From TrEMBL, chain A:
Places the protein is found: Cell membrane
Principal location: membrane
GO biological process terms, semicolon-separated: transmembrane transport
Name of the protein in its database record: Sorbitol ABC transporter membrane protein /mannitol ABC transporter membrane protein
InterPro entries, per the entry: MetI-like, MetI-like_sf
UniProtKB/TrEMBL annotation, chain B:
Residue intervals passing through the bilayer: 21-44, 84-105, 117-139, 151-171, 192-217, 248-270
Source organism superkingdom: Bacteria
One Gene Ontology biological process: transmembrane transport
Every ABC transmembrane type-1 domain range: 80-270
Gene3D superfamilies: MetI-like (1.10.3720.10)
Protein name in UniProt: Sorbitol ABC transporter membrane protein /mannitol ABC transporter membrane protein
A GO CC term attached to the entry: plasma membrane
Membrane topology summary: Multi-pass membrane protein
Predominant cellular place of this UniProt entry's protein: membrane
Automatic annotation (TrEMBL), chain C:
The keyword ATP-binding is annotated on this UniProt entry: yes
GO molecular function terms listed in the Swiss-Prot or TrEMBL record: ABC-type transporter activity; ATP binding; ATP hydrolysis activity
InterPro entries (alphabetical): AAA+_ATPase, ABC_transporter-like_ATP-bd, ABC_transporter-like_CS, ABC_transpr_MalK-like, ABC_transpr_MalK/UgpC-like, Mo/tungstate-bd_C_term_dom, NA-bd_OB-fold, P-loop_NTPase
Domain ABC transporter as annotated: residue spans: 4-243
This protein's GO CC annotations: ATP-binding cassette (ABC) transporter complex, substrate-binding subunit-containing
Record SUPFAM superfamilies: MOP-like, P-loop containing nucleoside triphosphate hydrolases
Keywords tagged on the record: ATP-binding, Cell membrane, Membrane, Nucleotide-binding, Translocase, Transport
GO aspect biological process, one term: carbohydrate transport
Protein name stated in the entry: Carbohydrate ABC transporter ATP-binding protein, CUT1 family
Pfam families xrefs: ABC_tran (PF00005), TOBE_2 (PF08402)
Length: 300, 284, 383
């Protein structure tokens, strides 16, 4: 039926405005207004240490930002982090989803164990990894390496970004697993039976039936994960504090440092605008997806 | 339990090589869970056993670390109370805001509501750092820094877009026929809402609330930047172990366990219901 | 009890850009009908013809964009569904899944603040009539399709409304149950005497249940008539083809001198057909309509129409056998005796009585030669 349910009550319009207004106002006040203010501050010469010396600065903050090598390091680290974590979590998540899509003894329990890391608070993740797993002397990883006759690795100082990638991937592979597994289970069994009767082997079955079916779900996983990876903070805060040097400083951490340690509102606002732009490049694809979903759904 | 749900779904039957794959699946499950298990184990050790180059698996467990983590002066209860208040508070405020909005969008859709919905979801993708500075400055001048109210509102803003979307998609699952039947049966807007729509959407509302609760509980960016002590949550409490005190592994572990246990257990029971909201309805 | 009047009722959809194709489906134009008190009216037509939309406008679930709808003389166009005192049975049943059968049936009464005792008594009564007393404590999901159907009926019954609306209520049932429920609904209607609108796409349901049938197509009424008249005097080729199973056969016939004919068939012209053919000017061709049950396998054929063709399909149904014969480029269906001594590929000759054929204009598809009295009473508008 193409008629919208609006017609459900002749003679009366639903008070849609009044019902939506609180949510809209709330998001305006807490998200959109501050975003506009960030944009405004980014053109101000404003340092909290010298609150009286405030004034219009034009593009000065952006100039400073673009000439700051740390900003470029942060940008590069952010992109590296997002790309590596995406690759690891999606590939591992897909492999695990296939593994857990079989019927076997205690599947429910094994799966519940596997997805548990997703529910762990990121700060705690950071601490567990920093101390109990990656500590060069007392960490579990070092013990394992020593036991098999290898030299223990100074994970956080020698491979800082890799260490952060490991932590984030540990947290988010379960997410990919959970969602892709649900996607796999929504695959109609008769499609698989049909393709098996057509003589497909397992790889062909995966390539031509399973993967296309997962397309939309994979898309959602990738987009959502990128949004979260772009804003990774707690894992870095709790472990490396952006170091050593700038090795693990990503954009959020860079902004945090310039705002709360250099008190430079202009510079950190300019960097924040940069982060917003970056996030939007990713988000635009997801929004388009959501909007498409909406249109498809409204023709029910 | 949600797990049994999955067991009913047919997958590839374990055939030849099935045992190896089953073993592998179990091994991976255990490996993924191991760090959590290890923290729990460490929390039950004495500091001496915990802090050793060769890990101990067999020992006589002690609740000493939990006792000291929960002791007066450790502050655990203060932080935990803040976590409970801000997580539950933001969830309730979020539901109160999201339900009416989602109701309007699901049952009285128009171009304007469609646009509003997409706009709301899109605000989710403004990174927190993008609004950090103004929020901090405004909060400071309003005296909202380090207050539970201020933090709760930030959590609400963080979760609201997802909550609206989830509630919307659960409402949309209610067949329009049933709403129409109610209107023919003589139900007004409020009666339809409270006697038909809400009871039908209750499981969905519950999982929306659960997800919001989990996200708010684990949130750390706003907690770390907007609070010091008064409104500081468990995220701030555990973050304080990141230096110095980090040498007391048993205590650190006990504190970690106390911080994550409620939410991990909640997550176990809500895993299925959360998937749908997290994927914006792409997977049911 | 109620008289429902629809005057020039129309439903037009704003064609929304980007939603092409669905523009005209479900729309209704110029719908005129006045029921008798307690009448059972069936709206029938192919999907998208506007029959459901018409019913939903009577229910108030959709606005009519033109015309007026009156129930017992009162214009209800701006009255909320809940204030119209109507009950509706949905195709999907639309039972409240979280309520027991009892509460599903009691919901409307509870909303009206009916005294508890009376609610109980009325629900019990309806449950007894529908034989679902033993199900009152169950939730809808614990019921079979047929049981849900009864509960949906019960929910309407309890209301004791002025008008019953039923939107394809049997289409989700399997064939056997459907036949049973058909008779049961007719019985219920006779017992309660409530004015009823019944929407269906199934002409058998329409014929067996309706006191009057409204045949619709593309949002317009084609014919409003009794089942008998629809079958005997269809006003156009659409109604003729829609009513009756298997469908009427149509052959394009040329008029030459003393008869009608074409490749593989001929039909002598009696006075009735002569007059019909001459209606509104002489015609050189027309559609010849013959119902499958009017074709016979007879040798002697003086004064009869004849057709001949190769058998392509034979369907033995038990009491009769359906045979499809290729006549020219048309496939003609004939309903013949149970035991036939023919095979696919055989050439079969069939005869028919010229008094039983229908003629339709080749351009407008309008029936030719309807007796004036029935034409006046039965046609509504057929633009």
């Amino acid at each position: 039926m193409s008629a919208s349910p609006t017609d459900a009550s002749p003679g009366k319009r639903a008070p849609t405005k009044r019902l939506m207004a609180p949510s809209v106002l709330f998001l305006l006040v807490w998200m959109i207004v501050p975003l506009a203010m960030t944009l405004y501050y980014s053109f101000q010469d404003y340092n909290l240490m010298m609150p009286d010396m405030r004034g219009f600065a034009g593009g000065l903050s952006y100039e400073l930002l673009f000439t700051d090598p740390v900003f470029w390091d942060a940008l590069l680290n952010t992109l590296l982090l997002v790309a590596t974590c995406l690759l690891v979590t999606v590939v591992a998540g897909l492999a695990l989803a296939l593994l857990f899509n079989r019927t076997f003894v205690g599947r429910g329990i094994a799966r519940t164990l596997a997805i548990s890391p997703f529910f762990v608070m990121p700060v705690v993740t950071g601490l567990i990894w920093k101390y109990m797993l990656l500590d060069p002397v007392y960490g579990l990883f070092s013990w394992v390496m020593r036991s098999i006759g290898l030299e223990p690795v100074q994970w956080l100082s020698s491979y800082p970004l890799l260490s952060v990638v490991m932590m984030i991937s540990w947290e988010w592979t379960p997410f990919a697993l959970l969602i892709l597994l649900t996607g796999l289970q929504s695959l109609p069994e008769d499609q698989l039976e049909a393709v098996r009767l057509d003589g497909a082997n397992r790889w062909q079955e995966f390539r031509h039936i399973v993967l296309p079916h997962l397309g939309q779900v994979l898309y959602v996983v990738i987009m959502l994960e990128s949004i979260f990876f772009l804003t990774s903070f707690a894992e870095i805060y709790a472990t490396t504090s952006g170091g050593p040097g700038t090795a693990t400083t990503n954009l959020p951490y860079y902004i945090y440092l310039s705002a709360f340690f250099q008190y430079d509102i202009g510079l950190s606002s300019a960097a924040a605008i940069g982060a917003v732009v970056l996030a939007n490049i990713f988000a635009i694809f997801l929004i388009r997806f959501v909007a498409g979903n909406l249109n498809a759904g409204s023709q029910r | 339990m949600t797990a049994s749900n999955a067991d009913r779904t047919p997958g590839r039957k374990a055939g030849s090589g099935g045992t190896a794959l089953t073993l592998l699946a179990w091994l991976i499950g255990i490996a993924m869970f191991f760090p959590i298990f290890w923290v729990v184990l460490t929390a039950l050790k004495t500091e001496q056993t915990a802090f050793s180059m060769t890990p101990t698996f067999i020992f006589s467990p002690t609740l000493e670390s939990f006792r000291s983590a929960l002791a007066q002066g450790s502050g655990y209860w203060h932080y935990a109370l803040n976590s409970v208040i801000t997580a539950f508070g933001s969830t309730l405020v979020g539901l109160a805001l999201a339900i009416p909005a989602a109701y309007a969008m699901a049952f009285f859709p128009s171009r304007r509501t469609d646009f509003t919905l997409v706009w709301m979801v899109s605000t989710k993708f403004i990174p927190a750092v993008g609004v950090l500075i103004p929020v901090f400055l405004v909060y400071r001048s309003l005296g909202l820094i380090d207050t539970r109210l201020g933090l709760t509102m930030l959590f609400t803003a963080m979760n609201l877009p997802i909550m609206v979307w989830m509630v919307y998609s659960y409402f949309r699952d209610i067949p329009i026929d049933i709403i129409e039947a109610a209107s023919i049966d003589g139900a007004g807007t409020a009666q339809t809402m409270f006697r038909v729509i809400l009871p039908l959407a209750l499981p969905g509302l519950a999982s929306t609330g659960l997800l919001a609760l989990i996200l708010a509980w684990n949130e750390s960016f706003w907690s770390l930047t907007m609070t010091d002590y008064h409104a500081a949550t468990l995220a701030v409490y555990t973050a304080s172990f990141k230096s110095g005190e980090g040498l007391f592994w048993a205590r650190l572990s006990a504190a970690s366990v106390l911080t994550i246990a409620p939410i991990v257990v909640l997550g176990w029971f809500a895993q299925r219901q959360m998937v749908r909201g997290l994927t914006f309805g792409a997977v049911k | 009890m109620a008289i429902v009047e629809l005057k020039n009722v129309a439903k037009r959809y704003d064609s929304m850009p980007g939603k092409k194709g669905a523009e005209h489906a479900n729309a209704v134009e110029d719908f005129n009908l006045t029921t008798k008190d307690g009448e059972f009216v069936v709206l029938v037509g192919p999907s998208g013809c506007g029959k459901s939309t018409t019913m939903r406008m009577i229910a108030g679930l959709e606005h009519n964009t033109a015309g007026e709808i009156r129930i017992n003389g009162q214009d209800v166009s701006s009255v909320e569904p809940r204030d119209r005192d109507i009950a509706m049975v949905f195709q999907s049943y639309a039972l409240y899944p979280h309520m027991s059968v009892y509460h599903n049936m009691a919901f409307a009464l509870e909303l009206k603040k009916t005294p508890k005792e009376e609610v109980k008594q009325r629900v019990q009564e309806a449950a007894r009539i529908l034989d679902i007393e033993h199900l009152l404590d169950r939730k809808p999901r614990a019921l079979s399709g047929g049981q849900r159907q009864r509960v949906a009926l019960g929910r309407a019954l309890v209301r004791q409304p002025q008008v019953f609306l039923m939107d394809e209520p049997l289409s989700n049932l399997d064939a056997r149950l459907r036949v049973g429920m058909r008779a049961e609904i007719t019985r219920l209607h006779r017992r309660l005497g409530v004015t009823t609108f019944y929407v269906t796409h199934d002409q058998t349901e329409a014929m067996t249940m309706g006191q009057r049938i409204v045949v619709m197509r593309d949002g317009r009424i084609q014919q409003v008539d009794t089942p008998y008249n629809l079958y005997e005097r269809p006003v156009n080729r659409f109604v003729a083809g829609f009513i009756g199973t298997p469908s009427m056969n149509f052959l394009q016939a040329d008029h030459h001198g003393d008869g009608l004919g074409g490749q593989g068939f001929s039909c002598p012209l009696g006075p009735r057909l002569q007059a019909a053919l001459g209606e509104g000017g002489q015609r050189s061709s027309c559609w010849l309509g013959i119902r499958p049950e009017h074709l016979h396998q007879v040798e002697e054929s003086s004064g009869r129409g004849r057709l001949e063709g190769v058998i392509e399909v034979i369907e033995p149904l038990g009491p009769v056998t359906m045979v499809q014969v290729r006549v020219g480029d048309t496939l003609v269906t004939a309903q013949l005796a149970a035991h036939l001594d023919v095979e696919i590929g055989d050439t079969l000759g069939l005869a028919f009585d010229p008094d039983q054929v229908h003629l339709f204009d080749i351009e407008s598809d309008q029936a030719l030669g309807l007796e004036p009295d029935s034409a006046a009473s039965s046609t509504q508008a057929t633009a």
